[in-house]
Write a structure and sequence with these properties.
379 residues, alpha/beta, Rossmann fold, six-stranded parallel β-sheet, three-stranded antiparallel β-sheet, 36% helix, binds zinc ion, DHS-like_NAD/FAD-binding_dom, metal-binding, NAD-dep_sirtuin_deacylases
């Protein structure tokens, strides 16, 4: 069975900093620069020697914090700041009209902040490092589309999909999220007025987080906000236009029913035409095609650098485990502990093995831009 995306909220052990000099920012910059410049790991198993000098990146929510998005687990992360936060699960979303109302209402208010948020110095450093010939591919858990925006010429594999589109769960057609936002605005005039007021007041300004928090609004990594007292029950969302025109055949062989109100809002007797964000929701299986592509990206490179991820999702941890079994050099730049890191950086692994590895407990934006400025072009 495909691994599910599930939130992992248990505490993690503290970071195992390696080498010890990487505990300071200056030491971490030296160590990460050395990681990129070192000869390929002598433990590396693989055939594609040509790319063994290159690095595959695996990134998570931590690198988008500097763009104004929240982390899941960081010092101000969603799980830390809001203990009652509970994402909408896939099975609830596909089976319950009420869940979809709640999800889309929160997403409707969160969207303008996400549109406004831009890639940051970490994404730009990745673009520059790729231009210098050091990176083979980026695999990301992030759904914010900052990677493809910052480095369109470097392949990005989006493990958990992306918020820039919505997709129909029946016919699988995609629509741009910004068009979907226009439909939500039209179907929910009172919410549109509320959103307009929030935008005018600056409460949704992602650069003004204190004001945002004062208003009780929190933009989560999945692009939604928490609206503790807003009534979701009247929120309305459109049906898939393709399924509305051509009702699909359901899995049991019956013809799906797609009914809308006169203005196009999905109506509850319907059994199909349900649009969802083009992200892997919590409790949803990851795509086998994307997973295979990510595994190939690991196998094509000689080093793996993890940034801004605690590897809490199983699909991300599995890629790192794969890299470890291949004998790849592994680097981790992440504030706070990482799932199973003692398996990667434990003292039992031996000095010669550890020589290829780096682990620092700093924010990526403190380290990577300076590293990139020091490294000479390889091509
Ligand atoms: Zn459809």
């Amino acid at each position: 069975m495909s691994p599910l995306r599930i939130p992992y909220t248990n505490p993690l052990p503290p970071a195992i900093v390696f080498p010890k000099t990487a505990s300071s920012v200056a030491g971490a910059i030296d160590a990460v620069a050395a990681f990129f410049s070192a000869p390929p790991s002598p433990f590396l198993q693989g055939v594609d020697v040509g790319k063994n000098g290159q690095t595959v990146f695996l990134t998570g929510a931590g690198i988008s914090v500097a763009s104004g998005l929240s982390d899941y687990r960081g010092e101000n992360g969603t799980y830390v700041r809001n203990k009652t936060y509970r994402p909408t699960y896939y099975h609830e979303f596909v089976t319950r009209h009420e869940s979809r109302k709640r999800y889309w209402a929160r997403s409707f208010v969160g969207w303008p902040g996400l549109v406004k948020a831009k890639p940051n110095s970490t994404h730009r450093a990745i673009a520059e490092l790729a231009a210098k010939g050091y990176i083979s591919c980026v695999v990301t858990q992030n759904v914010d589309s900052f990677h493809p925006a910052a480095h369109p010429g470097l392949a990005t594999i989006e493990l958990h999909g992306f918020l820039r589109s919505v997709v129909c769960i029946n016919c699988h057609n995609q629509l741009p999220r910004h068009e979907f936002q226009q439909a939500l605005t039209r179907l929910n005039p009172a919410w549109a007025d509320f959103l307009h007021e929030m935008l005018e007041s600056g409460a949704l300004d992602t650069n003004n987080r204190e004001e945002q928090q004062r208003r009780g609004l929190k933009l989560n990594p999945d692009g939604d906000v928490d609206l503790p007292h807003a009534p979701y029950s009247h929120f309305r969302y459109p049906a898939c236009p393709h399924c509305l025109a051509h009702p699909p055949v359901l899995k049991d062989g019956s013809r799906g029913l797609v009914e809308t109100e006169s203005d196009g809002a999905w109506a509850s007797p319907s059994t199909a035409g349900i649009l969802k964000p083009a992200v892997i929701m919590f409790g949803e299986s990851t795509s086998p095609v994307v997973r295979t592509a990510a595994e190939e990206a690991i196998d094509d490179a000689g080093r793996l650098l993890v940034m801004g991820s605690s590897l809490a999702t199983y699909s991300a941890w599995r890629l790192v485990e794969r890299a470890h079994h291949r004998g790849m050099a592994i680097g981790i730049v992440n504030v706070g502990g990482v799932r199973n890191e003692s398996r990667l950086f434990g003292e039992l692994l031996g000095e010669r093995y550890m020589q290829n590895h780096v682990r620092c407990d700093h924010k990526s934006e403190m380290v990577l831009p300076e590293v990139v400025s020091r490294l000479p072009p390889l091509v």
